[in-house]
Design goal:
By secondary structure, the chain is α+β, with helices and mostly antiparallel strands. The protein has two helices and five strands; from the N terminus they run βαββαββ. The strands form two sheets. A three-stranded antiparallel β-sheet has the order 1-3-2. Strands 4-5 form a two-stranded antiparallel sheet. The protein is globular.
Length: 103
């Protein structure tokens, strides 16, 4: 099975993806509505917070294997958890995993 992941921070960087996955997955521009991206001082990285009128621009990383998802989970460590979101792409809405910082 393959998964899609909404990238809005570190996963937008090709060197980070190569280090974690050994490759750079195919991606397409995507938007996540209803959230705002901010630099979380506690995490030291970007995080998402619910904001009714917010829009986060990012990439939809496609065809991520189950094993690769586990590698992304390891990278995000205990500081983040993932959950399913619906993002907008040029091809229409798509479900994807997104990582949210734990409060």
């Amino acid at each position: 099975m393959t998964n899609d992941v909404f990238a809005y921070g570190e996963f937008l960087k090709d060197p980070v993806l190569r280090r974690i996955l050994g490759r750079v997955p195919q991606g397409t521009p995507a938007k996540l509505r209803g959230y705002r991206k901010f630099l979380d001082d506690l995490l030291g990285f970007y995080n998402l917070v619910h904001e009714e009128e917010g829009v986060v621009e990012g990439q939809l990383l496609m065809d991520i294997t189950d094993d690769e998802i586990l590698e992304l989970d390891k990278f995000e460590s205990e500081k983040y958890h993932r959950r399913v979101v619906t993002v907008e792409t040029a091809a229409g809405p798509s479900e994807a995993w997104a990582y949210f910082g734990k409060a």
